[in-house]
Design brief:
Elements: H1 3-7, E1 16-19, E2 22-25, H2 33-46, E3 63-67, E4 71-75, E5 78-82, H3 97-109, E6 119-125, E7 131-134, E8 146-152, E9 155-159, E10 169-173, E11 178-181, E12 190-192, E13 208-214
Antiparallel strand pairs: 1-2, 2-11, 3-6, 4-5, 6-13, 7-12, 8-11, 8-13, 9-10, 9-12
The structure holds succinic acid (SIN) and fe (ii) ion.
Fe (ii) ion binds next to loops.
């Protein structure tokens, strides 16, 4: 069995296009993994993964934490970015240098040079966890792309169009894959199908860890009312 068999999926190669400004960079994150995993443990020790509640009152199946200046949160008051971890009242952990490097390098590979994220949402999926179709629209600056890194268990990524009802492409995301979408594809609906139970990943067991890097802009704490 080769190493690739062990980790499952395809080899690094040509970017796979999901749109004119959306690509999958297969295995792009693999060389960064030895530095990424200890960095995640450091973040988790400070701001643990937790299940947040949506404005509609549902508890998310995905557990999340953040690093960087801004962290994405949700509660009964809405979806938003916050400079503070609501659980600790403290700032989120700093974004580790290896995270910044990976985000910048992957964005550049996809054609978005000079990407400097100020927010990184870290999602943890266990079997059965899913992320329903949504747009990333809590950021202030839509000119910056979203850079999404997958580690551990294989997931089925759903990538739709500009409207919720548009056709959805389903594609597996393997350990080390990076998806970048920006420009005219920045507002495409996307999500993750319920994670299947599968043989444990050698490094991460039954879990899938995803981070999405964003340029979230200026923090705001209350909804703007006209
Ligand atoms: C997200 O859209 O925040 C997560 C996407 C993923 O887990 O691949
Ligand atoms: Fe998203």
């Amino acid at each position: 069995m080769t190493t690739l068999d062990l980790f499952g999926g395809s080899e690094p190669g040509e970017p796979e296009r999901l749109g004119s400004q959306a690509v999958i960079l297969r295995r792009f994150a693999t060389p960064y993994v030895p530095e990424l995993l200890p960095a995640i443990s450091g973040i988790e020790a400070h701001s643990p993964f937790r299940h947040m509640v949506t404005p509609g009152g549902f508890t998310m199946s995905v557990a999340l934490t953040n690093c960087g200046h801004l962290g994405w949160i949700t509660d009964r008051r809405g979806y938003r970015y916050s400079e503070l971890d609501p659980q600790s009242g403290q700032p989120w952990p700093n974004m580790p240098a290896v995270f910044q490097r990976l985000a910048r390098d992957a964005a550049a590979e996809a054609g978005f040079v000079g990407f400097e994220p100020d927010a990184c949402l870290i999602n943890r999926y266990l079997p059965g966890a899913r992320m329903s179709l949504h747009q990333d629209r809590n950021e202030i600056d839509f000119t910056a792309p979203i850079v999404s890194v997958s580690l551990g268990a294989t997931a089925t990524f759903l990538f739709g169009g500009q409207e919720r009802s548009d056709k959805v492409v389903r594609t597996p995301l393997y350990h080390g894959d990076v998806v970048v979408w920006g420009g005219e594809d920045r507002m495409r609906f996307h999500g993750v199908a319920p994670l299947k139970d599968q043989p444990p990943h050698p490094l991460l067991g039954r879990q899938r860890i995803n981070f999405t890097f964003r340029k979230a802009g200026v923090a705001y704490t209350c909804a703007h009312s006209p």
